[in-house]
Task: structure prediction
Amino acid sequence: MSTTNPPLVNKVASSGLITLKLETFWPDAELAEMDIKDYLFKELLLKEKDFREAMQAHDWAQYEGKVLLVDCSTDAIIPMWAYMLISAHAAPHAKDVFQGTAEDYYRTYFTQKLSSLDMAPYQDQRVILKGCTDGKAIPPQAYLELTKRLRPVAKSIMFGEPCSTVPIYKQPRK
Result:
């Protein structure tokens, strides 16, 4: 007499859960950094004539297709026009010019990207925001923004992996 094993059923796949992986929204452009302190007198004082000459002589082509992050790592007071001058020189080469650190950039990038995400596919759905990433540090702001956007439409929001989730929000029964 032969016994047959019942077919294996992937309960996670058939559960109707939608898993969102935030790393799929990761920006595709490489980041490059420019520290203004390197163009200041004694890393503290901006001399207009020297700064303008340095910007004119700077190799802007090195930022071709990259996101240029512009910041100052010292406590120098940088006039607004200095950032504007950098942007004017970098814009023809860089994919984008951003004032701040990489951490600042990723927070802003994810907020903008997720704020324009179409929420219709998640209407009345059970959604998991995947916890583990492929080595990319997703900023907490991304999880906050996506939860804020999903809450009005999703039936439930969870965090983690489909086999082990942390409940975040469940729509009240009507």
Remarks:
- The chain has two domains: 17-27+107-170, 31-94.
